[in-house]
Amino acid sequence: MKMEKDFFPVGREVAGIVLDVGSKVSFFQPDDEVVGILPLDSEDPGLCEVIQVHEHYLVHKPEKVSWTAAAGAIRDGVRACTALYYLSHLSPGKSVLIMDGASAFGTIAIQLAHHRGAKVISTACSLEDKQHLERIRPSIARVIDISSGKVHVAESCLEETGGLGVDIVIDAGVRLYSKDDEPAVKSQLPHKHDIITLLGVGGHWVTTEENLQLDPPDSHCLFLKGATVAFLNDEVWNLSNAQQGKYLYILFLLI
């Protein structure tokens, strides 16, 4: 993908009706209802009434799914599928910690993890978030309320897993330094040491912290556990045509 552009499209999550197709298009016909995500190098933003897009970025929208739900859920759905199915290889019986489970991304990730037969633990950043998570069915194994700043996430996870640790962690960002050295917006995030502590043997840590820094002791601890760290970047699917089939499967799975 060539990224030498001054401007990038906005409103990239799209849903609509196919008006016309090119001579080599085989997946769609006029009047088909579709949903998808425009690539970063798209010439048209999704906020236009009419756009041109390659068929490999779209899938059919089921009739029972509304336009708003289809376009609104697809981005976070792709991120959740990427984190659970491709970066951490989720399988039935695994334990998963999903940070900030009441967010759009977190809620979808919880549902996908339950669908795959995993045991889910999640954190809540407020009373409203906690109540939302407690209403989710199937029930979450443990909701950890971190809004007060007095609950230790690592201790709660180790207690829930009988001291074995969590198989998969999907964070919503982490603190790299002490609370005094971090901006206030990160005050409720767990420290990277907490994540490493609660991670089980052979575990997978999927992080959204693009500037994650691991010191030698951190790396040594991960090495002893045989654990892995993966960076969650959902744009990676469109960086190579070799990944197109998996990407379309994810879109189809979500919708």
Short description:
The chain has helices spanning 67-87, 104-115, 127-134, 153-160, 192-198, 216-225, 244-254, and strands spanning 13-17, 33-37, 58-60, 95-98, 119-124, 142-145, 166-170, 199-207, 228-231.
Q: In words, what does this structure look like?
A:
With 255 residues, this protein is α/β, with parallel strands linked by helices. The protein folds into two domains: 13-72 and 242-254, no CATH class; 79-232, 3-Layer(aba) Sandwich (Rossmann fold), CATH 3.40.50. The protein contains seven helices and nine strands; from the N terminus they run βββαβαβαβαβαβαβα. It has a six-stranded parallel β-sheet with strand order 6-5-4-7-8-9, sandwiched between helices. β5, α3 (127-134) and β6 form a beta-alpha-beta unit. It is an enzyme of class 1 (oxidoreductase).
Can you tell me the CATH architecture of the largest domain? 3-Layer(aba) Sandwich
Helices, by number, come to 7
User: What is the beta-strand fraction?
Assistant: 15-25%
Number of strands: 9
Radius of gyration over C-alpha positions, nearest whole angstrom: 20 Å
- What is the helical fraction, as a range of percent? 25-40%
How many distinct domains?
2
SSE succession = EEEHEHEHEHEHEHEH
Strand order of the largest sheet: 6-5-4-7-8-9
Q: What is the straight-line distance between the termini?
A: 26 Å
| Global outline | elongated
Which spans of ≥5 residues are poorly predicted at pLDDT below 50?
none
Q: Kindly provide the name of the CATH class of the largest domain.
A: Alpha Beta
Mean pLDDT: 91
Class per helix and strand makeup: alpha/beta
Q: CATH homologous superfamily of the largest domain?
A: NAD(P)-binding Rossmann-like Domain
Kindly report the CATH topology of the largest domain. Answer: Rossmann fold
